[in-house]
Structures are given as structure tokens and as C-alpha cells.
Design brief:
This protein has six helices and nine strands, in the order βαβαβαβαβαβαβββ. The protein is of the alpha/beta class. It has two domains: 119 residues, HUPs (Rossmann fold); 99 residues, putative n-type atp pyrophosphatase, domain 2. The protein has a five-stranded parallel sheet, sandwiched between helices. A four-stranded antiparallel sheet has the order 7-6-9-8. Helix 1 links the parallel strand 1 and strand 2. The radius of gyration is 17 Å and the shape is globular. The two termini are 31 Å apart.
């Protein structure tokens, strides 16, 4: 493998895209050394995922990986300086050569990550960039990624979709609504945010308890009131339940 042993950091929000990008890095032979999470104080950050991002601490434990966790204002210029500081810490403390991201379609995010990483001396890997959105969503479910929607902010989505593990049936409902109402099927336009509860690399799985709240005409949130880790039970054939 051309990437075998290359040390990288993972820009990690706890959602489906950053978790899949980390998964890709392992499959390609990289050596992911540390997760890097930035939590914006503003809900309208242009760069970073906000809902439930504090649960990356539990996800890092589930993955058995160290975490650099930084709180940032969410203001455009300031959050980029905070990102630079966090990536510099990852390079110095963990000796990483690059950073893997879950960027899908946002030119703004991808451009700024590339600029900041270049200043720090890191190479950027964005394996999801411009992937077919529907096929990507189906591959997540096929490959054992278990996630929930923690927010919905688009016409055609509602609170009934939130807080439920996205299985094949629920995913097809979401994809059908995306076609009908015209929102991005992978939520890259901010139509929804996700939280990964389990994935192939997780040594434990995340469990949550919460409630759905309506916060606008087409805006819903799943408010997580409790979160904890559970053991993954190995069943016959090596699969986990």
C-alpha cells in the first residue's frame, strides 16, 4: 500500500463524513495517530459541525485514540486560527505528516483546510470529495456505520427522522425525500447533522437518550440528554450486535 505507515491526524466532528474518512485512512494503510475536534460556540460556523460535537470525547474512547479538543468562537477568521493551532499541536505532539477530512462538496471548507494545513506543513487527504452522494449514503449503511440525525433544517424533513438509527429502510425514505424536495441527500448543504453511534473501528458503541424539539418552521433538533458507551457483543460469525 502506498500510504502504509504514514502518520496522519483526523479532523473529526463525530458525524458520518469524518468517521468514514477515518475508516478510509485505516483501510488505505495510514497510521491515524490523533483525532482533532473543534467545537464552535456559534451555531452558524462556516467551518465546523456543532450539534453534539462534545460527544467526540466518548467516540475517541470508543476508538481508542487520543483527542485534541479545541473550543473556538466560530467567527470566520478566528476559527481558522484555532484550526491552525490545533493542527500544529497534532504535528508537533504526534509527528503526523498529513490530515484526513470528510469534506464532501464545500469548496469553502476544503479550500480553507488546505490553506491552513499547508501553513502548518501537513498534506490533506479528502477521500469523499465529489463522491456520488446517494451511493455514498448507501455504502455507509452497507459497511456497518450506525448513525442518527441530530438536526434537520430543510423543507421536506421533519422531527420523525431524528434520533433514529439510519438503517436501509430509513435511508431510502430520506433519499426519496431528497429527490422529492430537492435537498442534498448527504446533507452537505446543512440540511441535517449526524452523530455516529457505531462503526467498524469502534471498540465500543455509543448510546444516547434524548428528545426531539422543533425550533423553527423547517428546523428540528434532537437534544441529547444522556450519552454513554456500551460493550459491543460479538456474535457467531464475528459480527457484533
Amino acid at each position: 500500500m502506498p500510504y502504509r505507515g504514514i502518520k496522519i491526524a483526523s479532523l473529526f466532528s463525530g458525524g458520518k463524513d469524518s468517521t468514514y474518512a477515518l475508516h478510509w485512512a485505516f483501510l488505505k494503510g495510514f497510521s491515524p495517530e490523533v483525532l482533532v475536534t473543534l467545537k464552535p460556540s456559534r451555531p452558524d460556523s462556516w467551518m465546523f459541525h456543532r450539534p453534539a460535537v462534545e460527544l467526540t470525547r466518548l467516540q475517541a474512547e470508543a476508538l481508542g485514540m487520543p483527542l485534541i479538543y479545541v473550543e473556538t468562537s466560530g467567527v470566520r477568521g478566528e476559527e481558522l486560527r484555532d484550526l491552525e493551532s490545533a493542527l500544529r499541536e497534532a504535528r508537533i505532539r504526534y509527528g503526523v505528516y498529513g490530515v484526513v477530512t470528510g469534506a464532501l462538496l464545500s469548496d469553502y471548507q476544503r479550500m480553507n483546510i488546505n490553506i491552513v494545513a499547508h501553513r502548518v506543513g501537513l498534506k490533506v487527504y479528502s477521500p469523499l470529495w465529489r463522491k456520488d452522494q446517494e451511493e455514498y449514503m448507501r455504502s455507509l449503511v452497507r459497511h456497518g456505520f450506525r448513525f442518527i440525525l441530530t438536526s434537520a433544517s430543510a423543507y421536506g424533513m421533519d422531527g420523525s427522522l431524528l434520533g433514529r438509527p439510519v438503517d436501509a429502510s430509513l435511508l431510502e425514505e430520506i433519499l426519496g425525500r431528497a429527490k422529492r424536495y430537492g435537498f442534498n441527500p448527504a446533507f452537505e448543504g446543512g440540511e441535517a447533522e449526524t452523530l455516529v453511534l457505531d462503526a467498524p473501528l469502534f471498540k465500543k458503541r455509543l448510546a444516547v437518550r434524548g428528545r426531539v424539539e422543533r425550533v423553527g418552521d423547517y428546523e428540528w433538533r434532537f437534544l441529547i440528554e444522556e450519552a454513554w458507551l456500551e460493550e459491543k457483543v460479538v456474535v457467531h460469525g464475528g459480527a457484533s450486535s
